TrEMBL record:
<protein>
    <recommendedName>
        <fullName>TOBE domain-containing protein</fullName>
    </recommendedName>
</protein>
<dbReference type="InterPro" id="IPR008995">
    <property type="entry name" value="Mo/tungstate-bd_C_term_dom"/>
</dbReference>
Length: 92
């Protein structure tokens, strides 16, 4: 699974753009960031349409450091099934 990561606050997304895609995002809380040699495994607890879901994915260590991603952070996940990738947004 490939990973595209964007941090809404650091990359200058306008609030209007974020609001347009927000309905497609899964809000969640980071439960775990397990740092490996080059990549980190993340576990996110999400809630969408009244259902609780667990999401697991791999993210580059550089991205984890740049975003300051840690346990307890509130994030949004955009899952892109056609490309089997996901985008993680962290909003300060």
């Amino acid at each position: 699974m490939s990973v595209l990561v964007k941090d809404v606050s650091k990359y200058g997304w306008e609030p209007e753009t974020f609001e347009k895609i927000k309905k497609h995002l899964f809000p969640g809380i980071v439960l775990e960031v397990d740092k490996g040699h080059f990549n980190s495994s993340i576990l996110v607890k999400m809630k969408k349409r009244g259902k609780e879901l667990l999401f697991s994915g791999m993210v580059s260590n550089k991205v984890v450091e740049r975003m300051g991603l840690k346990k307890g952070d509130k994030v949004y996940i955009l899952i892109e099934p056609k490309t089997e990738s996901f985008t993680i947004f962290k909003k300060d």
